[in-house]
Amino acid sequence: MNVLAEITNLTKIYDKNKMALDHMNLTIPRGKIIGLLGPNGSGKTTLIKLMNGLLEATEGEVLINGCRPGPETKSVISYLPERTYFQNNMKVSELISFFCDFYKDFRPERARQMLANLNINEDAKLKTLSKGTKEKVQLIMVMSREAQLYVLDEPIAGVDPAARDYILRTIITNYNENATVLLSTHLISDIEKVLDEVIFIRSGRVILQDTVENIREYRGKSVDAYFREVFAC
Amino acid sequence: MAWNLNSDRPIYAQILEVIQLRIISGRYRPGEKIPSVRDLAAEAGVNPNTMQKALSELERNGLVETQRTSGRMVTEDMEMIQETRSKLAREQVSEFIDKMKELGFSKEEVVELLEKMGGEDA
């Protein structure tokens, strides 16, 4: 298997008693669209932040292309955080030049095309956009890079179902065959058809990593139904 | 023949059925080129690898052929298309008969009902 990221024994303790990741082991292959699924507080965002070098691990390590998170890995990972971080008084067009400056793999023409498809005006200031539109803009920026790994933290939660479909189609058509998309979500039924694999995490540990088709074939249910069964409260 | 992939069964199997139906119904004609994996995946809203798997399976059973230079096309073997059509029809009928049995219908009653309703439609 062609490995893109290797996570070994990864542990993150926030307070003395709050263990967000508990000696997690995980291998992320190239060329897949992978769903990172787990209930609230299971460690999804902590894992994502550790992969992006935004947190320091208490123990264990993350290797992306064999490197620890740092400038090299940031140049190959396109990250969509949970919250938007853009300056509200920026225009969409300024954001595009901002991304051009920051990332040499950014493709402005691709971003402009997607903005046009979603009828988002480039001259609009971000603060004039609705919450959902802002999320779309941010996702467009992230998907317009030619990265090796796209890490999307809850990419579709705030957008309407029609835009959700567009975004999923964008993910399918835009990512290249050697790149991997890792996305966390609660909206499993909307997204499972575009996934190759799913990772279920609970209490900071991986409890399942399998293909969507295997789950359907051998458990006789959709990933959504299986998730509800595994994580039943 | 929209992509109604709402069942809990494996997705590639559902995709395969849609494409099969498109071939049998003539939406994809014999010898016609089939859209690329990526285009079909985007149209259906599914993972490209899943679409690839469905097409490979169709290739394996002969309904779809690969041309080295021009991608995939529908077979020109009309007999095979007809065979697939009859096979699917038999599956539908046997599913229907099972359901009618559950409703307590005898074979004679089913035939009688079919004739009566067929007459109404005509």
UniProtKB/TrEMBL annotation, chain A:
<keyword id="KW-0547">Nucleotide-binding</keyword>
<dbReference type="InterPro" id="IPR027417">
    <property type="entry name" value="P-loop_NTPase"/>
</dbReference>
<dbReference type="GO" id="GO:0005524">
    <property type="term" value="F:ATP binding"/>
</dbReference>
<dbReference type="InterPro" id="IPR003439">
    <property type="entry name" value="ABC_transporter-like_ATP-bd"/>
</dbReference>
<dbReference type="InterPro" id="IPR003593">
    <property type="entry name" value="AAA+_ATPase"/>
</dbReference>
<dbReference type="GO" id="GO:0016887">
    <property type="term" value="F:ATP hydrolysis activity"/>
</dbReference>
<feature type="domain" description="ABC transporter">
    <location>
        <begin position="5"/>
        <end position="228"/>
    </location>
</feature>
<protein>
    <submittedName>
        <fullName>ABC transporter ATP-binding protein</fullName>
    </submittedName>
</protein>
<dbReference type="Pfam" id="PF00005">
    <property type="entry name" value="ABC_tran"/>
</dbReference>
<keyword id="KW-0067">ATP-binding</keyword>
UniProtKB/TrEMBL annotation, chain B:
<dbReference type="InterPro" id="IPR036390">
    <property type="entry name" value="WH_DNA-bd_sf"/>
</dbReference>
<keyword id="KW-0804">Transcription</keyword>
<feature type="domain" description="HTH gntR-type">
    <location>
        <begin position="9"/>
        <end position="77"/>
    </location>
</feature>
<dbReference type="InterPro" id="IPR036388">
    <property type="entry name" value="WH-like_DNA-bd_sf"/>
</dbReference>
<protein>
    <submittedName>
        <fullName>GntR family transcriptional regulator</fullName>
    </submittedName>
</protein>
<dbReference type="Pfam" id="PF00392">
    <property type="entry name" value="GntR"/>
</dbReference>
<dbReference type="GO" id="GO:0003677">
    <property type="term" value="F:DNA binding"/>
</dbReference>
<keyword id="KW-0805">Transcription regulation</keyword>
<keyword id="KW-0238">DNA-binding</keyword>
<dbReference type="InterPro" id="IPR000524">
    <property type="entry name" value="Tscrpt_reg_HTH_GntR"/>
</dbReference>
<dbReference type="GO" id="GO:0003700">
    <property type="term" value="F:DNA-binding transcription factor activity"/>
</dbReference>
